[in-house]
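pls design
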């Protein structure tokens, strides 16, 4: 049976909202930046921000919020790979959705790719857990978590490319934060842990304060990116 550190649950939601808001701010300026290189850099930056800040950091902090009997650490290589999967999924989704003549079907397709990638990141991150227990899943609930990830991704792309204005961006980030957290905790509900006597391999990530440290580091980086994005958008507005 597992329970949660409520502070880390709250921090996981806050980092998901901030990451989503920052990515939506970056995407919101695409219409004014039509040059190929500039557009590519913007999409890549938004994918990194959404993948690392809005999705992976939320997932990792939420995993650290989960309290299980016995010590838990995380394989460094698999954890890093899960972060790359999240960024790659966002890059594919944002690249497809940002085409000049995108339709509703384009958003559904790109959101599906992105959602499947997010779900892959989640379960790869779960596989990175090192603990004295075997992890199993309820198939129906796990499938539901994938559906939640896909729907959330489609909604995020629709907000990013169909809506404009600071209020819509804020609402979109709040909704996206709920959706990302909803996918994660649905996936965690699908998991069940059977204790065993196998030793936990040393050398993984862990520690009581790691969640707070990750939150602080990611928020600092996102704040810098967000500040630069706002300054650049104001500059473009004045030049226009």
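designed seq:
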């Amino acid at each position: 049976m597992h329970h949660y550190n409520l502070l880390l649950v709250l921090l996981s939601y806050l980092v998901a909202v901030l990451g989503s808001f920052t990515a939506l701010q970056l995407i919101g300026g695409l219409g004014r930046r039509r040059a190929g290189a500039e557009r590519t850099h913007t999409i890549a930056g938004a994918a990194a921000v959404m993948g690392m800040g809005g999705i992976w950091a939320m997932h990792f902090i939420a995993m650290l919020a989960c309290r299980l009997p016995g010590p838990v650490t995380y394989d460094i290589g698999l954890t890093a790979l899960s972060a790359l999967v999240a960024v790659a999924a966002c890059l594919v989704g944002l690249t497809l959705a940002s085409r000049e003549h995108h339709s509703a079907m384009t958003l559904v397709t790109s959101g599906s790719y992105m959602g499947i990638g997010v779900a892959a990141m989640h379960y790869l991150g779960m596989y990175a857990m090192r603990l004295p227990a075997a992890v199993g899943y309820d198939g129906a609930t796990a499938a539901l978590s994938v559906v939640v990830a896909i729907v959330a991704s489609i909604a995020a792309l629709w907000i990013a490319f169909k809506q404009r204005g600071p209020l819509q961006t804020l609402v979109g980030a709040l909704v996206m934060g709920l959706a990302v957290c909803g996918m994660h905790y649905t996936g965690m509900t699908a998991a069940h842990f059977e204790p065993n006597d196998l030793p936990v391999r040393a050398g993984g990530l862990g520690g009581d304060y790691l969640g707070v440290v990750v939150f602080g580091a990611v928020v600092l980086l996102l704040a810098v990116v967000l500040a630069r994005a706002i300054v650049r958008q104001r500059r473009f507005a004045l030049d226009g």
